[in-house]
Each structure stands twice: as structure tokens, then as C-alpha cells.
Design a protein that fits this description.
Blueprint (H helix, E strand, L loop, with lengths): L7 H9 L2 H4 L5 E3 L2 H10 L2 E6 L9 E5 L4 E6 L2 E6 H12 L4 E5 L5 E2 L2 E10 L7 E9 L9 H4 L2 E4 H7 L7 H20 L7 E8 L5 E7 L14 H10 L1
Antiparallel strand pairs: 1-6, 2-3, 2-6, 3-4, 4-5, 7-8, 8-9, 8-11, 9-10, 11-12
């Protein structure tokens, strides 16, 4: 039997076919001159990222400025490009593998740094999907990616992160309930394609208005993030579900 594709685009396409989830997914396409130009015209922020790969490696953020200028950020490095053509040439020069373009979400921030949410969804054989853990990953100072190792970032209990963040107009309890609901819908949808999968680690974003987004789904999520929290309860729950 053919191996199922684990590319980020495949997972996006599987999720996008679910009408309740479609509005939570930032528009994503294969990287090309045409798709980049279209995204730069439509969105203030555009992410270019590897179609496969882990840990935030190779993620580039392009932000539109005034007068056809763009700010391009890789890691903590920033530069300004002039016009879409120069932006495309710069990206093309720095892209060594298959890439995607994705609408950039203006993630909520804590002390100026963006954060996203890791949501663990698991099931035991024959049982229902359950959310077993949620935490916030805060980008290191000056970075756009929230990968803790790569950006020198940190983790926080989710309720603490929401309380300290720039989110307005939605309570922490309502946002956490929304994250759970969307994560469970996503796990059900993905399990229809990845039929042997018993765990998904969803990277989810929250914007400043409290809207939740699915950034990407991981089939082999790193659970050691949960060991970094002072309270190890979620870590033990996750480990128990793997048995």
C-alpha cells in the first residue's frame, strides 16, 4: 500500500475539505512566482515555509510596507526588498527545497513576542479523540517563529499566556473551548486520511481578536515541551495515552 503523503500541503487539503474547518485555515499554496505575487497582493503578511520539515526551520516572513517595499525576515535577520520581483528573487535564492506560501496570521503577542498554541489530541484504540494537553509557545525576542529551541523562546500555561497577551474581546475560557473544539474536529478529519494515527500535535494560532487558526498538524509531535511546564500533569496524561 502506498505511503500517505505527510506534506503540509496534503494535511491542509485534507482539513480544507471540512466546511466547519475551512475558515480556520490560513490560505496555503505551493510556492511559485504566481502564488507569491497573488499572496503579496492579497495579504499584509505572507509566510514562505518548507513543504516538509520540522521545528520552524526555513520559515520566512514577508510583510508589506508602503511604496511597494517589503520587509523580509529569516530567523532574527531582516532586510527590505523593493517590489514583488526583487522579493521573489531573494526568496528563490534562499529556498533550497519544495516550499509553500501561506497567509501570515497576525498572532497575539506577549511582551512584543508572538505566541502560538500546541494542542495534543490523542486516542486509545477504539476510543474517542481527546485533547490531552495545551500550552503556549512564545517566540524568542526578535524572532517570528515560536519553536522554542530555534528561537530561544519559552513555554507558558495557556491560561497565563492568554491573560498576559494582546487578545481583546474574548475570555480565556471561551478561547480555550474554541481551541479544543477545532482541534477535535481537525483530528477527526485527519484520521479519515491517516487511518493508523493515534496522536496529532496541532500548532494553532490566536489573533488579537481571539479568533483561532490551524497553522499546521504534526504526526510526530514533540511531547517534551510539556516537561518544561512547572505542572507536569499534562505531560503524564500524554504519556499514559501512548501506552
Amino acid at each position: 500500500m502506498a505511503k500517505k503523503s505527510e506534506s503540509k500541503l496534503t494535511k491542509y487539503e485534507v482539513l480544507r475539505k471540512s466546511s466547519p474547518l475551512a475558515g480556520t485555515l490560513p490560505n496555503t499554496r505551493r510556492f511559485s512566482k504566481r502564488s507569491l505575487y497573488e499572496f503579496l497582493d492579497r495579504y499584509k503578511k505572507v509566510i514562505a515555509k518548507p513543504a516538509s520539515g520540522l521545528g520552524g526551520a526555513g520559515v520566512i516572513l514577508v510583510t508589506g510596507r508602503s511604496h511597494s517595499k517589503y520587509r523580509v525576515q529569516r530567523g532574527a535577520n531582516r532586510r527590505t526588498t523593493h517590489g514583488k520581483k526583487e522579493t521573489y528573487r531573494y526568496l528563490r535564492k534562499n529556498i533550497k527545497s519544495s516550499y509553500l506560501v501561506q497567509r501570515g496570521i497576525s498572532l497575539a503577542r506577549i511582551s512584543g513576542s508572538p505566541f502560538d498554541v500546541r494542542v495534543m489530541v490523542q486516542r486509545k484504540l477504539g476510543d474517542a479523540w481527546v485533547v490531552t494537553g495545551m500550552l503556549a509557545k512564545v517566540a524568542g525576542r526578535g524572532y517570528i517563529i515560536t519553536n522554542v529551541k530555534r528561537s530561544g523562546g519559552s513555554v507558558l500555561p495557556l491560561a497565563t499566556a492568554i491573560r498576559r497577551s494582546t487578545i481583546k474581546g474574548a475570555s480565556g475560557a471561551a478561547i480555550m473551548a474554541r481551541l479544543r473544539r477545532v482541534a477535535l474536529l481537525a483530528a477527526h478529519r485527519l484520521a479519515g486520511y491517516y487511518t493508523k494515527q493515534r496522536v496529532f500535535g496541532l500548532d494553532m494560532g490566536i489573533d488579537s481578536s481571539g479568533k483561532v487558526w490551524i497553522i499546521e498538524a504534526n504526526l510526530r509531535p514533540d511531547i517534551t515541551l510539556f516537561l518544561k511546564l512547572a505542572d507536569k500533569t499534562m505531560y503524564h496524561t500524554i504519556v499514559n495515552y501512548r501506552k
